[in-house]
Amino acid sequence: MSGINFDLNTEGIQVVRHLQDQVSGRTFLITGPSEGGLGAETAISLAHGKPALLILVGRTLSKIQPTIDAIKAINPSITVKFVSTDLTSPKSVRQAANEILNDPSISHIDVLINNAAVMASPYELTADGGFELQFATAHLGHFVLTNHLLPKLKASTDGQTRIVNVSSKGSILGGIRWDDPNYVKHPEEYNAWTAYGQAKTANVLFTLALNKRLLKTKTGANRGIRSYAIHPGGIYTNLIRYMNEELWDEVKRRAWNGEEVPVKTLQQGCATTLRAALDPALEKEGGDGGVFLSDCQFTKDPEIVAPWALDEGDAERLWALSEELVGEKFEV
Hints:
two-stranded parallel ribbon; 10 helices; Rossmann fold; alpha/beta; 10 strands
């Protein structure tokens, strides 16, 4: 495959057209595809590659319908299914997963893109479980969803099954609060950006733990299922709805050395997600240690992905903590 240099300026539609054979006829599931967001742009870009089925998972159809309409405008033959869930509620996520598992028209899932998130929100505990909102939305909801959907992912037979966890540079803002991840013991310690850092760190650690479990079976056979985490870049989407001048100043100081945040377009932002989801070359480029991409390329730069987010031991610790929090153990 030649003719494109993947970098910070690459656009999502370019990736899809370049890797169309990895899109055509395949089934994709994307969480958080609300209008104007990164998930929506990812889904709309995929529509240019003639996928067989796009499963869009979100809270309300009204927020997803514009994305569905945009997909149909590109290619009316693409089947689009909307599945409603509240990622902050393990009960709701299990119900959505069961709906997908029991749908005879969904024989398998080739690519799962865990995209949904909340950024720098005020302190809030979820109604179901009492989890910190950012940690629940970005990590715990996807932890439950992914594990429940594994039978459909394992049913994909083309050897290029992917699970993409949309993280960010935010991992450098804070690691996992092992003794108090939901700030219930010390709510006075809550900081919107540190909590965001915890959620984004969790995305990367979850990726490491998935690869340990999914790359090979207990007998050593290659399952053909690989997970990547990515930093899409700074993009103006509805994620910034909680932002004010104070929060902007804080994140610039903590993550960008006081400089202005470089901004990408939505098309540039979804390109890294799509390369992680589609490109067979990544397996060779990354080897066993490549799990995190930024600007469409692997990186371990500590200014982009925190060292604690790449700790194999912490990945296992987070898996156990997540099982404890959601009240369910998963044998992969």
